[in-house]
Amino acid sequence: MNSSLYRSLFFLFLAVNLSLVACNKIDIVEQSTAIPGYEWKYDFKPAFDFTISDTASAYNLFIVLRHTDAYRYNNIWLRIGTQAPGDTMRYQQVDIQLGNDAKGWEGTGMDDIWELRKPITRTPFKFNNTGDYKFSINQVMRENPLTHIMNIGIRVEKLQ
């Protein structure tokens, strides 16, 4: 075979693979909100709405948090509310580890800004009903306002 045939086959192979990758649907939804003045007060409770249409699939649920290097603690306590369609809001308190003294901050950092994604549930779970789900988050640390928190959000990942 000559080199032009190899080149043609290579580009055909590349085009087919790229078209297959482009057809894969990514089932990830992420929403976040900025914390005003990087001072998270007790009464600031960001809320996020997600529409779930597939109850047969399992999902992972994550907290997405961005903070500055000046944040004073290795963790953050959050009160997370979840409301299924036609139901009342149900709450859970979670302790999110942000780092430790030996290894520093978890997540990815650039200059003095750190972002991390932490699972809320220990295992993937299935939503019981289709429809609009509402999530709310508020900080329940002993400090009010809690300084140096920049953004907070929720990420919902559908498992394939």
Task: Give a nutshell description of this structure.
The chain is built from one helix and 13 strands; from the N terminus they run αβββββββββββββ. The chain is mainly beta and 160 residues long.
Kindly name the structural category.
Answer: mainly beta
User: How many strand units?
Assistant: 13
- Please tell me the overall pLDDT: 89
Distance from N terminus to C terminus (CA atoms, Å) equals: 40 Å
Strand content: over 45%
Rounded radius of gyration (Å): 21 Å
Reading off the top of the CATH hierarchy, the class is best stated as Mainly Beta
Bin the helical content.
Answer: 10-25%
Our count of domains comes out at 1
General shape: globular
Tally of separate helices: 1
Instruction: Tell me the CATH topology.
Output: Jelly Rolls
Quaternary form? single chain
Poorly predicted regions are 18-24
Question: Please, could you describe this protein's structure?
Answer:
The chain has 160 residues and is mainly beta. It has one domain: Galactose-binding domain-like (Jelly Rolls, Sandwich). It is 13% helix and 48% strand. The chain is built from one helix and 13 strands; from the N terminus they run αβββββββββββββ. A five-stranded antiparallel beta sheet has the order 1-13-4-10-9, with no helix packed on it. The protein has a four-stranded antiparallel beta sheet with strand order 3-11-5-6, with no helix packed on it. The protein has a two-stranded antiparallel sheet with strand order 2-12. The chain is globular, with a radius of gyration of 21 Å. It starts with a helix and ends with a strand.
